[in-house]
Amino acid sequence: MPNWRKPTAHQNLVFILIFALGAASGGSYTYSFFSLQKTEVRKVSPLLDPALAYRNSGEYQLPLDFRLKESESLLRTRIQQEIEDNTIQEASIYYRSFNNGPWFGINEDARFLPGSLLKLPLAIALFKQSESDPNLLERQIAFNNPDLLPLYNLQFAEPAERLEIGRSYSVRTLIERSLIYSDNVAANLLERTLGVEAWARLSKDLYVPIDRNTAHSRGLTSKEYSTFFRVLYNSSYLSETNSEFLLNVLSKSTFIDGLRAIVPEGTIIAHKFGETLFGDKKKFAYLSDCGIIYGKTQPHIVCVMLRSDSRNKMNRELFMRLFRDLPIIY
Q1: Where do the domains of the chain lie, and which CATH numbers do they carry?
Q2: Quick one: CA dihedral 43, 44, 46, 50, positive or negative?
Q3: DSSP readout, 191-246?
Q4: Contact 170, 191 (CB under 8 A)
Q5: First to last CA, the chain
Q6: Residue 259, exposed/middle/buried by CB under 10 A (0-12, 13-18, 19+)?
Q7: CB 88 within 8 A of CB 169
Q8: How many whole angstroms from its chain centre is CA 298?
């Protein structure tokens, strides 16, 4: 057990001077009980922060901000109200700040059917494969499968554009379409390119139990899914170039009825939504929207998963009721 002693006035002065010098030099200092060390911050893009993976390891962190506690309490109350009003049957929310990593979860270990959420790990797996196969992303895939066109009819949020029979598309273009428009046909063509081994590698590397078949049957948790955004933000799995590319594509998503509805206009959000209809006559529905909100003060992950007896009940007004005036969002 360390023998603690109150710092002298001289030691306090040295600490203040070192902290000031760190700020002036573009670095930051983190205070540890055992040492004072400088962390070099190299911000290569407004969308990601590779240095995050190497900061605050074992360092003292401030107690959870009271705003997070207030936000969690409000969300719990509002979710319960929506359940009592029969708008939803279940909800899961995972929140994590990238400023020293404080987080909270509400039912964060509950499993929800992911639907189109799986298009993001599919894209990550393909980009990982491209780092050892440089020509993969520009490889052309011919769309000669009219039997795939009915997949568009399964989408509640239908893509603004569709693939054309007889045309060829690069893997990169299909990835963009699968993330921006959540294009089911583009994703299906990509799955045929990826293969089972790449899914297994992604699951093993990131400790997320996922492959297309089991994920659809067993579901994913909001906490598990947030891993994909965390590794993109800190570039700990893909290269910085590939991580930034995917975050930029995710920020162009055309889906506006989820997280986009809860932030001020002009706020950047790199996000992916997913929806699944199930049960007798497809009466029940899951809707999820997860991503990074680049707020005024800091970026943070927000992952929302909902289950209802009607897809129509899960709309932008519901998201606005849940998240209105929460201090963590801004």
Answers
A1: 1-41 (no CATH), 66-323 (3.40.710.10)
A2: negative
A3: HHHH-HHHHHHHHHHHT----HHHHHHH-B-HHHHHHHHHHHHTTSSS-HHHHHHH
A4: no
A5: 41
A6: buried
A7: no
A8: 15
* HEC profile of 161-200: CCCCCCCEEEHHHHHHHHHHCCCHHHHHHHHHHHCHHHHH
Record the tokens describing residue 8, joined without a space. Answer: 């002298």
DSSP collapsed to 3 states, 243-285: HHHHHHHHCCCCCCCCHHHHCCCCCEEEEEEEEEEECHHHCEE
User: What tens-digit pLDDT sequence spans the chain (330 residues)?
Assistant: 444 344 444 444 433 443 344 444 343 322 222 222 333 344 557 787 775 554 444 433 434 467 788 899 999 999 999 999 999 999 999 999 887 778 999 999 999 999 999 999 999 999 999 999 999 999 999 999 898 888 888 777 778 888 999 999 999 999 999 999 999 999 999 988 777 777 888 988 998 887 666 656 678 999 999 999 999 999 999 999 999 999 999 999 999 999 999 999 899 999 999 998 876 656 679 999 999 999 887 899 999 999 999 888 999 999 999 999 887 766
